[in-house]
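hey so i finally got around to running the thing on that chain from the lab meeting. sorry it took forever, my laptop kept dying and i had to restart like 3 times. anyway pasting the input first so we r on the same page abt which one it is
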Amino acid sequence: MENRPNVLLLLTDQERYDLSAPTGPTVRTTGYDRLQAEGMRFERAYTPISICTSARASLLTGLYPHNHGMLNNCHGNEAVLRNLPERFPTFARSLQAAGYETSYVGKWHVGRDQRPEHFGFDQYQGTDSNVLDDTLRAYHRSFGIDSDKIELEEVLYTDHPEDPDLISATLPIPIEATRTYYYTELTIDRLRRCADDGTPFLHRLDYPGPHHPYVVPEPYASMYGPDEIEPWSSYSETFDGKPRIHELQLDNRGVRRFDWDDWAPIVSKYFGYASFIADQVDRLLDALDEFGLAEDTIVVHTADHGDFTGSHRQFNKGPLMYEETYHIPLVVRWPEVVEPGSVCTEFVQLHDLMPTILDIAGLDAPSGIDGRSIRPLLEGSTPTEWPKRVFAEYHGDEFGFYSQRLLANHRFKYVHNAFDIDELYDHDSDPHELRNLIDHPEYESVRHRSQEALLEEMRRSDDPFLEWTRKALT
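ok and heres what got predicted. didnt touch it at all, straight out
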């Protein structure tokens, strides 16, 4: 175990930190709760960017997006890069070279033409598309289901006039016939074969949810009554003193006319989706026990980024650097090393997992990466030089380029918006980030210190927009 532990990495898509946090909404998250009770929960884990492709590329490489080049999603015509350059080292390649069996199930979304096999995974089963592939169609047929004849129920769409998005629905098929359950079954089968083989393994399972559309089967679809769901504290957003893009996003996403009566049934499906996945994680933990792998396997659960689901009256994500989309869950279970039920309050980031996984496996991280190993934190100690702040970025997506940078410490968050006013939030007095203090005279010194710290983080990480930002701030 000490030299060659197995690694099971569980990544969800668009899961908010507060879904499984003790102070969050009342959502049943059985598997996550079990991991937290048996591992370490990180209270201050952040994504380096709140968009799928970019965040996933950072997880693989240990680099900020401005260093690996995948600045936005790879699937659209507006993609800066179609594929992640293969010159970058990945944790999977290093483990593969060290003799690990490496496998991947689920969503990929890091490149159009490459798959996980290009970056160190021996085998891959999954798809990026919501369109059913032949494998899943065959799986449906084993349940007597014709994939083309499934008719969603309780369907809700955005009000976007040109291209309304499917937001949520009830999926009228058995739990066992869903993609989420199927990917869990594939992973359980993989764990069974790894147990029989005895070779150390890295297995990564990327669930496609709880990303919208929140399409879930019963009993999860009706597990949370819309009438019982209270509005998010940030739902009282007025956009007063905020960058103009914040309010424009209501039109961009087609949710301007939504009120809480519209959002409540959507949030109920999102909660149900999260509970569904958490129950599947519980099945995986049972499988590790059944196959005798639990003591020799490190389990990591995290997400690429969060989700608004009505917070700040917003849908999905975008050029809004609020906690709901940048603050992510992270839990690590490492038997005999991590203290069960422990909580870490230090800042960590998604791309820190790349060097961490290598460190745990006894391998050196490649030089020049931005991430740092969180192994000392897992072992119960905090290095004296551990950062007291977090840096993140955003570059735009479907609507075009929109440059943002974020710098936050334990109290203040500063956001530099290249094309509009900046933002400053005091989490002690305004934890839901409703009041922009950027021009408040009592916070002038905080603003200046935050700007200096931001420039320092941009310099340290070789951000190509450093000089442009420095000029904009002077």
